[in-house]
Amino acid sequence: MAEAHQAVAFQFTVTPDGIDLQLSREVLKHIYLSGVTSWKKRAIRFKNGVLTGVYPASPSSWLIVVIAIMSTMYARIDPSRGMIDRIKTSLPVSISQHKLKSLNILFFMLRWSITLCFWLFSFMLFLLFIQYKQMETVANDFKKDPAPKFQKHLKLKSWWATNYVSDWWEEYIYLRGRDPIMVNSNFYTMDLLYVIPTHRQAARAGNVVHAMLQYRRKLERGELTPLRALGIVPMCSFQYERMFNTTRIPGIETDFVQHLKDRKHLVVYHRGRFFKVWLYYGGRHLWPSELELQFQRILDDKSEPQPGELKLPSLTAGNRVPWARARLKYFTEGINQASLEAIETAAFFLTLDDEAHGYDPENIRSLDLYAKSLLHGKCYDRWFDKSFTLIVYKNGKIGVNTEHSWADSPIIGHMWEYVLATDCFQLGYTAEGHCKGDINKSLATPTRLQWDIPKACQEIIESSYMIAKGIANDVDFHGCLFNEFGKGLIKKCRTSPDAFIQLALQLAHYRDKGEFCLTYESSMTRMFREGRTETVRSCTCESTAFVRAMEDESTTVRQRLALFKKAADKHQNMYRLAMTGAGIDRHLFCLYIVSKVMGIDSPFLKQVLSEPWRLSTSQTPQQQLNLIDIQKFPKYVGAGGGFGPVADDGYGVSYIIVGENLITFHISSKFSSPETVREFQTLLFFLSATCEYMILTNKLHLILNSSLQFYYLVI
């Protein structure tokens, strides 16, 4: 998921003397790229057209091609192998002198074109061969000498560490990253897709917060049943422990995760003001109706933000070092320290948003705006360092923005399913949309947090805001609901739904870009203690063979079906291997850390781990708790969640398989990249690709009508 971005973008050097951090080039480009105008984009497209036209050669290699062409002409060598002469002999004899001259010019140009293509193609094959041989050489060298040394150290660590990967993964991929975590690392989760239980903002917040407190109590008492893989193998629940009362604290060289025991308050942000709300009264949780009263008091408060208070949360959205320095200088004493401590020690962070968002069937971009709001908001109205920020919109819609270092998406998804089910089917609302229960008006009103932010600190806040705003403005999102078919029909074809979608994405990407790319799919490894994720490399020899067959009109349906099944089986097997600890990417990552600590440079590891994931994908888990019968209540389905683009010139794709007949997609890219197209266009490629090879009763049928109708509707 979002960790794919961290693994490539955050570069560092570990030495015995300390850590040498290098800022990713992406961070430096964010501010510049946000101001790039359309004419600059056209210039970039032209340049990329030249570069990609000669790939994998460089523009300078054209000199070699020209020299080769001139040599063939001087030596009177015909690279067309007599093709031009055969064309000449097949033409009529009775041609006028003028036409003959024109034909000679045409033949001359044709000879040059064929010669150019021949030598360019040969040169490209030669370069590819050289690149392959170089990679083969460094891989063999790595296997012979440094690899055994590194492996011994990892074996030693595996004997005394609970998990030889997870602590390094959290530290080096997340906490040591100095880039902004907004968009680059944090991810979001949406509300129910079709249903808004109440349009009263304070009431919805009251029920949801109370449901979260119930979940936290169950978690602390150990009353949550562990999930089981395939219903048999229990999965590690370690990540759940830091869901509440947790904050990422910024540091100069590295951040750290602060987790506390039971916290009895939360902090609410509304219209630039911070409020502290106590969650207990007389030794019990506040009832939903009492929480609604407290939140309504905040909504009714007409006070103005203090100087510097409005955009204060943007410190958590910008670069980590300025935030760490500002925290040490301006927030370690007095009222600033007390107010910041209230935020960082809160159970979680709540934003009462002054905007309205959600899915609107009549507005095709409604999910896009909803996703962008959850992912980055206004860049100053979410506390991105908290374990999660609950967002409640003024129309009653909700969502969550989650900091990634402490856990992965299935963890927050588990809590979210419990909260949505409890909110709608256990707590409920009155006919007027209020929370049920009596109102205790004797509760102390929420406490306004106080700040004394000097001008110098306000300038740092504004600088962080501008960096975050540049990142947010560059994010292009598209969400789509695909309901032509779903898991039910795919399973009837005896195919894994996940493998089906991954192959469809490979075909879509190939039709979009005309080439294949390194593809990342996140797989969980929680069958191991403190396990987190592993990478499934979805672009395989089998998947590329299937895609090429789909683009080759000479291949038969039977051949395509055979290649599809072979590719799907390969993908499913790779997913099993990743889940059971037989993946390669996390192990390579740990070998790389050992190499840096030992001060041994490894060209193989450096090259392998620096390759960009231009297509990063992840499936959002659904129905982990089975608290809602979606067959009986089909409108009570979640919309899933998503994350920001991983590569500057790539796509981030999150999808959720909902029930039997719905698949939702969240696709992200960057406006500044001329290599990516608008997300709805990419999704159309997907719809076309998916429908084209839909399998029914072991036969490949081309059912394009639905996707074509959708295409014309959007266009």
From TrEMBL:
MF terms in GO: carnitine O-palmitoyltransferase activity
Please write the reaction equations for the catalytic activity of this protein: (R)-carnitine + hexadecanoyl-CoA = O-hexadecanoyl-(R)-carnitine + CoA
Q: How does it sit in the membrane?
A: Multi-pass membrane protein
Pathway field of the UniProt record reads: Lipid metabolism; fatty acid beta-oxidation
Q: Does the keyword Membrane apply?
A: yes
Recorded hits in InterPro entries, A to Z, give: Carn_acyl_trans (IPR000542), CAT-like_dom_sf (IPR023213), Cho/carn_acyl_trans (IPR039551), Cho/carn_acyl_trans_2 (IPR042231), CPT_N (IPR032476)
Q: What class of enzyme is it?
A: transferase
Q: Which Gene Ontology cellular-component terms appear in the entry?
A: mitochondrial outer membrane
Explain the purpose of this protein: Catalyzes the transfer of the acyl group of long-chain fatty acid-CoA conjugates onto carnitine, an essential step for the mitochondrial uptake of long-chain fatty acids and their subsequent beta-oxidation in the mitochondrion.
Q: What is this protein called?
A: Carnitine O-palmitoyltransferase 1, muscle isoform
This protein's species is Cyprinus carpio (Common carp)
Q: Source taxonomy lineage?
A: Eukaryota, Metazoa, Chordata, Craniata, Vertebrata
